[in-house]
């Protein structure tokens, strides 16, 4: 039963992990956008073979890495899986707010970034998710586009498109100066009072949370200690009753202990004081036999 439960929990964990990973991947793919397109390349950007061809640029608008590998590019909506982007290369990983360029030269044998179709004016190009059904982004090319003129997104977070004679492959199309977060903060709070308030609020909030945490933990341990002491007071030691054999053995041991304290001896010495009015040093009577021989 325990093995079945463990296997069930392991299966649920694997399913949740796969679903969560797929959700993260899908969420990353939705951040991919067409950013810049060059239709007629006469004197513009060249590929690694030194050849010029039409090309398209895709941007990762998120602030985390996205792997475009496994997605599809096509110029035919009825054939969403026209060009599959291989997913076994690190070259397809787009850095945060990064860019990637594909050459539409109809020569996919030249590498991952060479499509099997050409770009045509007035037609649309599509980017599909790895399932081949979810449309991530699409753009329709202008009917007329002069040579070396690019059709580009005005900024990464904008949906407005324009044309320009200056191409910016693998870089942002908007090169205008943008105020940083620090500069915008200084504009709203030039003295720094707001920053001080925010910093102090964060510090005191953290201290308050720690205080409450340790207070609750301390109360819990005190309650446990009090419960243990109360249980010890009510708990009585069980009375032990000695059997008759044990009592008899104890009595016999005590009797022997007290009875054997005197050391009995076979010979008793008695010292008797003899009173004589004379000095025994010159007396000869003790040298004579009491019973002389006959």
What can you tell me about this protein's structure?
The strands form 3 sheets. Strands 7-2-1-10-11 form a 5-stranded antiparallel β-sheet, with no helix packed on it. The protein is α+β, with helices and mostly antiparallel strands and 294 residues long. The termini are far apart. Strand 10 (150-153) and strand 11 form a beta hairpin. Among the domains are: 1-30; 31-177, Sandwich (Immunoglobulin-like), CATH 2.60.40. The protein is built from 4 helices and 11 strands; from the N terminus they run H-E-E-E-E-E-E-E-E-E-E-E-H-H-H. The radius of gyration is 52 Å and the shape is rod-shaped.
What portion of residues is helical? 25-40%
Strands side by side in the biggest sheet: 7-2-1-10-11
Instruction: Identify the CATH architecture of the domain at 31-177.
Output: Sandwich
| CATH C-level label of the domain at 31-177 | Mainly Beta
Please give the largest β-sheet. 5 strands, antiparallel
Order of helices and strands: HEEEEEEEEEEEHHH
How many individual helices? 4
- End-to-end distance: 118 Å
Please tell me how large the radius of gyration is: 52 Å
Q: Can you count the beta strands?
A: 11
Per the CATH scheme, the topology name of the domain at 31-177 is Immunoglobulin-like
- Structural class call reads alpha+beta
Q: What fraction of residues sit in β-strands?
A: 15-25%
Calculate the mean pLDDT score and round it. 83
């Amino acid at each position: 039963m325990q093995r079945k439960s463990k296997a069930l929990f392991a299966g649920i964990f694997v399913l949740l992990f796969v679903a969560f990973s797929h959700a993260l991947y899908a969420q990353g793919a939705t951040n991919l956008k067409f950013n810049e397109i060059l239709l007629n390349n006469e004197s513009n950007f060249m590929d690694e073979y030194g050849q010029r061809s039409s090309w398209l640029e895709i941007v990762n608008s998120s602030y985390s890495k996205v792997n475009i590998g496994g997605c599809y590019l096509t110029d035919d909506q009825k054939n969403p899986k026209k060009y599959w982007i291989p997913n076994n290369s690190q070259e397809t990983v787009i850095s945060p707010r990064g860019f990637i360029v594909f050459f539409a030269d109809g020569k996919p044998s030249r590498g991952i970034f060479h499509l099997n179709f050409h770009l045509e004016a007035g037609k649309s190009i599509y980017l599909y998710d790895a399932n081949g059904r979810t449309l991530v982004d699409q753009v329709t090319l202008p009917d007329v586009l002069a040579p070396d003129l690019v059709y580009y997104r005005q900024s990464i977070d904008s949906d407005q498109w324009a044309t320009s004679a200056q191409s910016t492959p693998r870089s942002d199309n908007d090169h205008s100066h943008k105020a940083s977060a620090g500069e915008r903060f200084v504009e709203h709070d030039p003295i720094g009072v707001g920053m001080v308030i925010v910093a102090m609020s964060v510090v005191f909030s953290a201290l308050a949370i720690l205080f409450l945490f340790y207070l609750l933990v301390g109360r819990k341990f005190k309650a446990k200690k009090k419960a243990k002491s109360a249980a010890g007071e009510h708990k009585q030691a069980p009375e032990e009753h000695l059997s008759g054999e044990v009592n008899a053995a104890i009595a016999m041991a005590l009797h022997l202990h007290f009875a054997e304290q005197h050391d009995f001896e076979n010979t008793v010495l008695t010292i008797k004081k003899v009173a004589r009015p004379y000095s025994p040093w010159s007396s000869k009577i003790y040298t004579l036999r009491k019973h002389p021989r006959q």
